[in-house]
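Justification of resources, computational component.

The compute hours requested in this renewal are based largely on the per-chain cost of generating structure records like the one below. Each record pairs the submitted sequence with a full structure-token output. That output is archived, and it is also reused by downstream analysis tasks.
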Amino acid sequence: MATLLYLHGFNSGPGSTKATQTGNWFKQNAPHINFVCPKISPFAKEACIALERLICESHDPISVIGSSMGGFIGTHLIERYCIKGALVNPAVNPALGLSGYLGENRNYLSNDEWVFKRSHIDEYREITYQSIKQHQNYLILLETGDEILNYKHAVQFYDKASIIIEEGGDHRFVSYSKYLPTIYDFLFPNG
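The structure output for this chain reads:
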């Protein structure tokens, strides 16, 4: 059985709208795919250790969907483990925009409190890729109206990957649900 690993965005959680839409769609349309959506730490090192352990311990082939920061971490996993991934409005170089989180924070969904330090920003810098090599393993979905991340950065970074650009929209990628069949076909071409 193949596994789909959904990577939610920064300071979000498994109960996010896209995570829920994805889980529901796969339950209804591809119940043979094992859907996994773990809670991801806001700290890059901690997040990567947990996700890499999950991949290494799996006996099944794994593909990922990553949203925003989940797309950034997804890039790390795709490059390191040569797996396939669909990335939605992915962050390309998040260390540049994380200083606003320095200090005390609260998770949007769980209300968990956490403290973000400069050393945590450095952790994101350490896993930032200058370029990717596994171009064929990426499907990139972008909306031009993303108010958080400039979609052009992702177009440039993932330039040799398959890219879908929707006019308008926002950082949440409002047209996400209509692309779930496309994502499924890309990640699991043999059904």
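The two ends are 11 Å apart (CA to CA). The chain has a mean pLDDT of 96.
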